Amino acid sequence: MTVNAITANAGRIQSAIQRAAARTGIDFDYLLGQAKVESGLNATASATTSSARGLYQFVEQSWLSVMKQHGSEYGLGWAAGAIGRTASGKLSVSDPATKQAILALRNDPEIAAAMAAEHASDNKDALESATGRTATGTDLYMAHFLGLGGARRFLTNMQNNPDASAASLFPAAARANRSVFYNGDGSARSLSDVYQRFASKLGDGAGNAGNGGNSLPPMQFAAQALDLDGATVVTGANQTASDALSWASNALGARSGQTQAASLLRPTPDTARLAYMMLARMGG
Known about the structure:
Layout: H1 3-24, H2 28-39, H3 60-70, H4 77-82, E1 83-85, E2 91-93, H5 96-104, H6 109-131, H7 137-160, H8 166-169, H9 171-176, H10 178-181, H11 191-202, H12 218-225, H13 241-255, H14 269-283
Antiparallel strand pairs: 1-2
């Protein structure tokens, strides 16, 4: 893959995450950090120890669940309608070809980012009810990693006994993710250790769940992101960083509910290029 292709792919992924954040109100930093942790921003990543695939490494049942609930909102009614439940309550798709087509959507960064944001939004209220506090980005990540029921169990046990062995409480997850649950010397990590490990990996997104993950006002944050090490950028259509700054401010405002999400979907081509520079700086 050429440098230009890599840059274009990275831009597509970050733009998809930005749109998902704006639509759902889930923090961009959290969603970006989650994608970095899960796949290293590789939209076609696959796990060797589970059915996890794509930018956000959804396993089959989690993907079918969020697609069943939210697919129709994104023009994927054919997928949502094809997903049913067996007598045991397991989600299933009767037609094998349709099932494969639905699961393959995990490799589409636009759809994967949207479903990850919807999944986080669905989990937020439930986790806050279980813990009695505002959900953090790390809390939301635990729900993605262990499922909602597993996250509730993890977080409530951690509140009561943070030094308890995480592997003892989640033996199946520990078998599939040994490096998460065990230290290099083979000793088991505590619940607190596992939680803090994910918090460190999520970086700026660890404490952010809902809107307002960035402490700077939108205009100031966008201005810093567009500083571009002091360079003056002017495009072929004579659009400057100020034009992109205006668009970026609207995009960031959409994250905090100040503007309609649709306003960030139609930048001019040149403004979009400049705004991508901002997004690249944001993602670091």
